[in-house]
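On clarity, I found the account of how folds are encoded harder to follow than it need be. What matters is that the chain and its backbone geometry are given together, residue for residue. I therefore recommend that a typical entry be quoted early in the introduction. An entry of this sort, consisting of the sequence and the corresponding backbone structure tokens, reads as follows:
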Amino acid sequence: MGPLYTLPAMVLSMCCHVQFALAWTVNNFLMTGPKAFLTYAGSVQVGAQSGIHECKHQFVWDRWNCPENTLQLSTHNGLRSATRQTSFVHAISAAGVMYTLTKNCSMGDFDNCGCDDSRIGQTGGRGWIWGGCSDNVAFGEKISKLFVDALEGGQDSRAAVNLHNNEAGRLAIKATMRRACKCHGVSGSCSIQTCWMQLADFREVGNYLKMKHEHAKKLEMDKKPVRAGNSADNRVAIAHAFQCIARTELIYLEDSPDYCVKNQSLGFQGTEGRECLKGNKNMSQWERKSCRRLCYECGLRVVEKHIEVVSSCNCKFHWCCTVKCDKCTQVVAKYYCSRKQGGRKPHNKTKRRHSARRQ
């Protein structure tokens, strides 16, 4: 579905409805600026979509797995959560928007923007000079701020935290950029190289921010909104709390709820019924421990189910030019968290270890 636009005075409210297989939506992206910025609305929508997909990928085997309600970023709708998880949501969303805007700019999709040629011809290092088509991150950063940061209209600590995490997401784009080079010289001697800066794959940005999420810092400060007459005092308190926090770090204000259990009011479904992974040497350590994390440590047991999976097989190329495949069915074992008889009984660490061995 496409975005819906209205323009009261100078404030453009863009509501992007992005439909996914799992019914994900992105709502309430706001932007302050002239009508000309409507040009970038489509890229913002795509960027928000990429942020959602990356969030789902990064947390697929976590107790919190980016549920749909998580993407309600706007503080105007009363959702004022500022947990470790929402710090990642703000960062990856801002990063996704900046990434897509930068890509589209460098590809010439916008009339007023192109490659970053500000350093072309300058010496970059020994044996190479700046050249080529560097991705224009300055443009992507500027427009991303106009869209995403406009969601935060308050002056309280929560708004300040969200803005900080937005900025950390945009800085992650810069931190993961890499230099690409092309050789020049007689007979491929590569006597001189021209180099440019290009965006990394967005998966690298997601991995980078996931590490920042694991080491996110909790701020201890007043979480109440500004009262009339004390905005100056509030700004001083916020500035003091932020003075030792690097701009690249993710921060949060409040502890996360128990994601093991279902909480209808907060929109969390708990881990009962979630799939987990077991016994594959090709898995990462994090994946191999997913059953312990999602099931055992949440007082649930693991049940094995055998499911028929249909996939393409015996594919052959036919001249010219089609590929025809058979449909093959195989039975695979999958594992799910299930409630124990008598309800949830949280284990201590010793019981969890013995239980994990038995499984």
Summary: Residues 180 and 281 are 34 Å apart (CA to CA). The radius of gyration is 24 Å.
